[in-house]
Amino acid sequence: MFDRFQIRELPPGSRFAAQLRFWVNGEDVVEEAVGEGGRGPYAVDALPAGRPSPLRATGDARRLVLGEPDCTGGCCGFLTVVVQRFGEIVQWSDWEVPSPTHTPVFCPPPELHFDAIQYDAEVTRAEANHWSQVRP
User: Fold this and answer.
1) What percent of the chain has a predicted confidence (pLDDT) above 70?
2) Which of 95, 98, 108, 133 could form a disulfide with 77 if both were Cys (CB 3.0 to 4.6 A apart)?
3) What is the arrangement of strands in the sheet containing 89-96, beginning at the earlier edge strand?
4) CB 119 within 8 A of CB 84
């Protein structure tokens, strides 16, 4: 059974630009891994205009930054994962979690496996949705 992947875009706030949150099996991965108040990547970086999103999975493994705690990644580290496609499966593995000194230690999420068709469709949907909102 595959994990279920969803991307949500949070509108810009008073301190931060629009950011993304990643939901897997109905749970917010960023909040679960870095705590309440954690931030996802800026939408403009994760869904860049004119080129494929770094969220797209290929046969080459690469590390993605998915979030950071509210104290910033420069302080305590970032939530990162290695994403790679294996045929019709997209795998997220080898998590790194922030290690804040003033909050509880965060546990890395488990290795996740997504149906590549569903994963690609969700990234495509997020790319199209994001750019329809920012066009002049």
Assistant:
1) 84
2) 98
3) 62-67, 79-86, 89-96, 112-115
4) no
Q: Are 27 and 53 in contact (CB under 8 A)?
A: no
For 19, 72, 87, the CA distances from 39, given in Å and listed in that order, are 7, 8, 31
Distances (CA, A) of 50 to 24, 38, 44, 108: 27, 28, 11, 33
Q: From start to end of the chain, where are the E strands?
A: 5-10, 19-24, 27-28, 62-67, 79-86, 89-96, 112-115
Angle at 95 (CA atoms; ends 94, 98), nearest 5 degrees: 145
Amino acid at 124: T
Asked which of 9-18, 46-55, 91-100, 118-127 is least confident by mean pLDDT, the reply is 9-18
Instruction: Kindly report, residue by residue over 91-102, the tens digit of the pLDDT.
Output: 999 998 877 554
Residues 6+ apart with CB under 8 A from 51: none
Count of helices and strands (H, E) across the chain: 4, 7
Q: What is the mean pLDDT of residues 7-16?
A: 82
